[in-house]
């Protein structure tokens, strides 16, 4: 990760260049993951491609307060590890779409924090650069705003 200390001393052009490099690196790291993910302030959606024809009974999925594990029965896990933040297990769900991807919907316990990554051992994104999509400023507490 780039040093934030020297960031303030950079010119506008140097900052833009660094931001562009960081975004490109971030995109490359994220696209190398075995899933795609999106988030809003209150939730995270993880989309995991699986072999075409996969059915719910073929999957081994574990969703816990701070852990997520997804795989096909009898094979290595597609993803397995500690979630970067706690979730509300009872409000989190998974579905299989078109027999070729698993959509995991995680409800964040803390609905006022952006996640840097899904699993703690995966590359992080810079949450300061997130442009909130539909979340209204009034949804945020004063400090986050």
Automatic annotation (TrEMBL):
UniProt GO BP: protein folding
Location(s) in or outside the cell: Cytoplasm
One GO CC annotation: cytoplasm
Domain CS intervals: 30-119
UniProt keyword Cytoplasm, yes or no: yes
InterPro entries from the UniProt entry: CS_dom, HSP20-like_chaperone, NudC_fam
Compositional bias of kind Basic and acidic residues: 9-29
Protein name, as recorded: Nuclear movement protein nudC
Organism of origin: Tricholomella constricta
